[in-house]
């Protein structure tokens, strides 16, 4: 697989670095200086210009010409009265000039601050752009992140605003979710992903590799290796910078949200204390503060690892000591490969390869799109399945059309329920090989393979018994919009269905007309933040 890289090296965040970077560099001991460069350079993106110094040059030149015209020559030979008038006129002219220059400076400063993003980072917020027009929630000029946790969506946005790309934002948000949503994902989870490069038009699938076990019922963790591999090939910011925010959350504490509190109430606390319990053994409720210093130490060690394998060793070694096990003969084998694609009249569909549900998804879509008949009811009751995998999804997008979709799962709520005391990690019980990844099929629709400026739509679902049917229904709903797709995007964006067969969640992201669109179904399940 040919991977396009930016041979210009990594980009420094400089003064535009976020509060996450400053806070965690100081408190968590993770330094972004002197970080070892990844084995492969990042891809070429259409870079987000934070500030162009030429913005004010024309105004300043015009201003200088104006001043030369209005300031009289007070030293010209004139009579006494005229000299007094000239001096008074010159003083006023200098005052007006100073005020005009101050106005120009303030205008440039305002533009630069706007380009860096709204520092308040309120959920779903987006300040009006310099052109003066505003957008509905979920529409942004530069880029956005959407995830089930507001803290992690904010972290993804901050990484974008610091000069990172969608891979940086997605990896940082995924590691954040590993801290604040241990019931659904974590460093013990299995990851699948789909990255679409808006510059090259290429789509790349990410897989954790075959499911392997450490012991009966305990999955071999592969999250750190998988995410580090993705960042090595496509990220822009230094690897340690992505782990700084999650490490600080684990060390200094995070607030339990409704999703985690609900999972704790349903699961009970057996095996989860003292991490997620009060001193009396009762589960933490919404708004309680939880800390995980052992996990913070793992993230700190992983931040110093120059390769994916060494990042995984930061977790695996203390984990094996906890379990009293020997190192496995074969470790995780995450991979990046060209996405599975299907050409359809509306563009090109891309998804992940087997053993994910990607091939099933494309077959279902091909049959529906080429039949010429209305699609069958995709929400008919499904046969009973032993368990619906519990998982987590997130998506990041920029206005140039670059998209990252990530989905992860521990299989059961809180995975195996085995908490490693030395690492603060819950291991997965996702160990059945053939059907283990039927819950994963992220999808990207690129409306033209030859035109990199064409519209891009990304869909990723989680928590439903059959995500392929859910994703098929969502895409067909989008394509069934008005014939004038430009009008459809302008007024509606992605499809606005209110349910996905009664359960689970679906994230939708899109790039259209140099804007990034994000939404979720149901609408209140996830938080989006952009700039």
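Sequence proposed for the structure above (531 residues):
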């Amino acid at each position: 697989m040919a991977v396009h890289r930016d041979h210009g090296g990594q980009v420094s965040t400089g003064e535009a670095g976020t509060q996450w970077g400053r806070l965690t560099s100081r408190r968590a001991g993770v330094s972004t200086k002197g970080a070892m460069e990844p084995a492969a350079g990042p891809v070429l993106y259409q870079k987000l210009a934070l500030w162009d110094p030429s913005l004010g040059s024309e105004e300043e030149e015009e201003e200088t010409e104006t001043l030369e015209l209005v300031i009289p020559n007070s030293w010209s030979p004139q009579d006494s009265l005229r000299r007094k008038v000239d001096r008074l006129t010159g003083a006023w002219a200098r005052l007006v000039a100073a005020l005009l220059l101050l106005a120009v400076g303030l205008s440039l400063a305002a533009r630069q601050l706007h380009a860096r993003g709204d520092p308040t980072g309120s959920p779903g917020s987006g300040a009006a752009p310099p052109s003066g027009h505003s957008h509905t929630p979920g529409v942004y000029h530069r880029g956005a992140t959407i995830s089930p946790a507001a803290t992690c969506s904010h972290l993804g946005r901050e990484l974008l605003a610091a000069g990172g790309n969608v891979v940086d934002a997605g990896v940082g948000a995924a590691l954040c979710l590993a801290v604040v949503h241990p019931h659904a994902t974590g460093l013990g989870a299995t990851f699948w992903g789909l990255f679409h490069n808006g510059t090259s038009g290429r789509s790349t699938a990410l897989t954790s590799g075959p499911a392997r076990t450490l012991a009966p019922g305990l999955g071999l963790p592969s999250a750190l290796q998988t995410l580090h591999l993705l960042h090595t090939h496509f990220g822009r910011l230094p690897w340690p910078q992505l782990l700084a925010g999650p490490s600080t959350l684990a060390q200094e504490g995070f607030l339990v949200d409704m999703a985690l509190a609900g999972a704790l109430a349903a699961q009970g606390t057996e095996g989860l204390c003292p991490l997620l319990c009060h001193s009396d053994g009762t589960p933490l409720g919404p708004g309680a503060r939880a800390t995980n210093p052992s996990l913070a130490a793992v993230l700190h060690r992983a931040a110093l690892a120059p390769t994916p394998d060494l990042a995984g060793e930061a977790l695996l070694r203390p984990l094996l000591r906890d379990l009293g096990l020997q190192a496995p003969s074969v470790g995780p084998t995450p991979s990046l490969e060209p996405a599975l694609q299907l050409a359809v009249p509306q563009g090109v569909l891309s998804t992940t390869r087997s053993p994910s549900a990607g091939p099933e998804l494309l077959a279902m879509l091909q049959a529906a799109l080429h039949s010429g008949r209305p699609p069958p009811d995709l929400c008919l009751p499904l046969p009973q399945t032993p368990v619906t995998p519990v998982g987590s999804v997130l998506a990041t997008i920029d206005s140039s059309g670059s998209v990252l979709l990530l989905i992860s799962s521990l299989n059961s709520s809180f995975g195996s329920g085995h908490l490693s005391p030395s690492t603060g990690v819950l291991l997965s019980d996702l160990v059945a090989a053939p059907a283990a990844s039927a819950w994963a099929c992220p999808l990207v629709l690129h409306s033209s393979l030859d035109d990199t400026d064409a519209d891009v739509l990304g869909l990723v679902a989680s928590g439903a018994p059959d995500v392929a049917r859910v994703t098929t229904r969502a895409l067909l709903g989008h394509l069934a919009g008005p014939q004038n797709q430009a009008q459809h995007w302008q007024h509606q964006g992605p499809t606005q269905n209110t349910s996905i067969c009664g359960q689970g969640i679906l994230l939708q992201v899109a790039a259209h007309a140099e804007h990034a669109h994000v939404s979720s179904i149901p609408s209140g399940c996830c938080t989006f933040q952009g700039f």
